[in-house]
């Protein structure tokens, strides 16, 4: 099994990416091969720092880099030899089993949509994000930001995708699916969430527990939190900022430490034909390593086949 | 000046309401008269506990109560002698200058819409909520939950209403208005927020600073945070739950203490012809007292006249 990393992605690339890949290669030794995709002139000198530990990495050299600020679709099309474009081609051809990048999020989504493509039957792929639970373990929030405007049927599918992920990757037997709204009552919500609520009620594939509220993100009510990408993005950025404020104010706590993106690693793209994970721009080596571990878990679980199976009409 | 309280509203009413009213009457002595509206048989015995302090309160007796779980519109119509309906009639007739209740939120909105009515030119009144800022003071978030589905023009007006409130009640000279979105760039957002962004850009009445993100709720970027009621409600409930988790985990902090609803008091309804404030269902006496103080500040500032003036076309 091969888990690949975009060595050029992230605010601290390639240093942080290479360091994270070396860490992950140690942890995955005997289970999976870590593949590093990047510019030879930048990656090779860095690897020398790690001596024999770096020898475990497989290297693939690309010549271009999609920068963080570039227009995603344009850059992806014009830079066919960028680390992201090369990674997606290898993923699509089956040379690698998962592709991770802390680089340009938009370009990662473009590659997901146009190189790897959505699973047949999936209306719109979504980004999933892990949410630590007070009772222990993690829940999953879908969508974390890929789709700002959603139709009720999209929200329904986010619930199905999240439920499959919770089951096959997180190992939750019968994941509770909650629909984010502004009140628990069925009649509360926007026009879209109210319609989605009705779809969920008769959906035999998910264990729908009804509406949940902003206060239920971290509690035990739902394992799968369904919302549009606008709401999901706002919530996650807000949680992250509250964690940052706590750190600044010297409030140390085991639970809130799990809200830190570093512990979580990255955000898988669900509903596409292969395993792709997007990392946080400011990813440290630890975050990169955890993202690669996630990539391994996803690939190992066979989640994509489960999704394909489930969406076969 | 008369500031009235629904003695029957809130999960701990009438006890907490009466206790809060007594507190507020002491603080407002010489400035404003606190009026208590409620059921005589329930309110009178409670007042005896407070001895002479209770004598400062003006009493208005109503015979009915709208319960927390009741259907707002139906209950408001059928219970014409409920404390909420009586309060709104007194507000509309000018007998009182502000009306506060920690009772049924929906019924408070019904009274606002049908007894007091929206200011001419305002498309939809909104609920405002105060947000503590890391740099000190408070910002204001509009809408906190009255309108789940918004048109771009509504968001634009929320910015105008919030800006007037920040200016005339919070005393912020040139309030910075930020539009909540999932990215800072102009092109980021939902179809509605993208259109609202364009309206704000050419609006001469507000100091628009562009898109803000979930991470900007507590920082100094914007004094007025504009979002639809769905997003606002989710954010505020999430902030509240994170505060609750911190309390449970013995994390004490001066800044996060300000996120506590108790300190804030209540949420004014903006864009109606009088001063009405909705309190949290679980309001304690301190929260009730702070809500009444807010009611006084609103009435004293003449904010409603400012809004009427500003929306006169």
Q: How would you describe this structure in keywords?
A:
313 residues; Phosphate acyltransferase (chains A, B); 43% helix; EC 2.3.1.274 (chains A, B); alpha/beta; Phospholipid_synth_PlsX-like (chains A, B); 11-stranded mixed beta sheet; acyltransferase (chains A, B); Isopropylmalate Dehydrogenase; homodimer; 2 domains
Polypeptide structure, described:
Two copies of one chain form a homodimer. The first copy, chain A, is α/β, with parallel strands linked by helices. Chain A has two domains: 153 residues, 3-Layer(aba) Sandwich (Isopropylmalate Dehydrogenase), CATH 3.40.718.10; 141 residues, Isopropylmalate Dehydrogenase, CATH 3.40.718.10. Chain A is 43% helix and 18% strand. Chain A contains twelve helices and eleven strands. The first copy, chain A, has an eleven-stranded mixed sheet, with helices on both faces. In chain A, strand 2, helix 2 and strand 3 form a beta-alpha-beta unit. In chain A, helix 1 packs across helix 11 and helix 6 packs across helix 7. Chain A starts with a strand and ends with a helix.
């Amino acid at each position: 099994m091969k888990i690949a990393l975009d060595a050029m992605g992230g605010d601290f690339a390639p240093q942080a990416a290479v360091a994270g890949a070396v860490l992950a290669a140690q942890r995955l030794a005997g289970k999976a091969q870590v593949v590093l995709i990047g510019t030879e002139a930048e990656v090779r000198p860095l690897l020398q720092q790690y001596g024999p530990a770096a020898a475990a990495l497989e290297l693939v050299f690309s010549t271009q880099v999609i920068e963080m600020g570039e227009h995603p679709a344009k850059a992806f099309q014009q830079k066919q030899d960028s680390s992201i474009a090369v990674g997606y081609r290898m993923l699509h051809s089956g040379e690698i089993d998962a592709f991770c990048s802390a680089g340009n999020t938009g370009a990662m989504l473009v590659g997901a949509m146009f190189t790897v493509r959505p699973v047949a039957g999936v209306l719109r792929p979504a980004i999933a994000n892990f949410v630590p639970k007070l009772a222990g373990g993690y829940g999953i929030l879908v969508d974390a930001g890929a789709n700002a405007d959603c139709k009720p049927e999209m929200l329904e599918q986010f619930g199905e995708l999240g439920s499959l992920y919770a089951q096959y990757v997180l190992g939750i037997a019968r994941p509770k699916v909650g629909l984010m709204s502004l009140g628990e009552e069925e009649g509360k919500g926007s026009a879209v969430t109210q319609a989605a609520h009705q779809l969920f009620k008769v959906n035999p594939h998910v264990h729908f527990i009804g509406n949940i509220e902003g206060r239920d993100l971290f509690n035990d009510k739902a394992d799968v939190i369904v919302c549009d990408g606008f709401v999901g993005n706002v919530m996650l950025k807000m949680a992250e900022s509250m964690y940052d404020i706590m750190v600044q104010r010297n409030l140390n706590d085991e639970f809130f430490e799990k809200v830190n993106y570093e512990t979580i690693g990255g955000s898988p793209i669900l509903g596409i034909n292969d395993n792709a994970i997007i990392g946080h721009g400011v990813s440290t080596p630890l975050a990169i390593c955890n993202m690669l571990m996630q990539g391994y878990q996803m690939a190992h679980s066979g989640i994509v086949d489960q999704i394909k199976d489930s969406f076969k009409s």
